[in-house]
Amino acid sequence: MTTNDRAEIFLEMARSTYEPQMTAHLHKDQPILLPGAWSAGGKVYDEPWDITFFGPLVGEFKYAVNGAPDSMSCWREYQMYWVGFPDFRLTDYKVFLKEDGWIARITFGGTAPDGQIATVHQADFATVGEDGRLMRMEWFVDTYQWQQQVLTKCSGLTIPEIREIVHQPSGYNKLIDYVLALPQNA
């Protein structure tokens, strides 16, 4: 595979990762599918493989996918964001290619019913194996920015209360569960 072939594959995988998140708020009742995000050309494999993920609020974890668009979805996370910001979405991204994948600079945003506007940032570092499968995805954020602008609004919790939850094992999932169980969401 040539360098140009790899570059095209990486750009398509990145587009498949980010663009569905730009319009997800328009279809809140449907899972957010990421066709082509997990493997080159959206290839589905008989045997799943583990992708290692890392983020500052969740730590490192592995998730098994087979390449299908519904292998993994960020829908529950977005459902949490939509509690505070009904139009929360990925608003912009720029991809920078690297030898074994890409780096993306991402902006998310939304407007709360009270008019509060959130604009938060993330950087993704994606590593793709020689066979075209996503092997590792790390994302980095300004944790305080996300907690202050987004998570406090969605949860009604203070930053210390949010930190107490997310620093537990599976803490970010516990925060999502907490927010989705709030009376206005029940």
Offer a few descriptive terms.
6-stranded mixed sheet; alpha+beta; 5 helices; 33% helix; 186 residues; Nuclear Transport Factor 2, Chain: A; globular
Count of alpha/pi helices:
5
List low-confidence stretches: none
Q: How many domains make up the coordinates?
A: 1
- CATH 2nd-level architecture: Roll
Helix content range of the residues, please? Answer: 25-40%
Strand tally: 6
DSSP strand (E) fraction?
25-35%
The top-level CATH class is Alpha Beta
Terminal CA distance reads 51 Å
Structure description:
This protein has helices at 3-22, 75-84, 143-155, 159-166, 171-180; strands spanning 49-55, 59-65, 89-98, 101-111, 117-128, 134-141. By secondary structure, the protein is of the alpha+beta class. It has one domain: Nuclear Transport Factor 2, Chain: A (Roll). The protein has a 6-stranded mixed sheet with strand order 2-1-6-5-4-3. Helix 4 packs across helix 5 (171-180). The longest helix is centred in the N-terminal third of the chain and has 20 residues, at 3-22. The radius of gyration is 17 Å and the shape is globular. It starts with a helix and ends in a 6-residue tail after the last helix. The model has no long low-confidence stretch (mean pLDDT 94).
How are the secondary structure elements laid out?
Blueprint: H1 3-22, E1 49-55, E2 59-65, H2 75-84, E3 89-98, E4 101-111, E5 117-128, E6 134-141, H3 143-155, H4 159-166, H5 171-180
Parallel strand pairs: 1-6
Antiparallel strand pairs: 1-2, 3-4, 4-5, 5-6
Helix pairs in contact: 2-3, 2-5, 4-5
Protein name: SnoaL-like domain-containing protein
InterPro entries: NTF2-like_dom_sf (IPR032710)
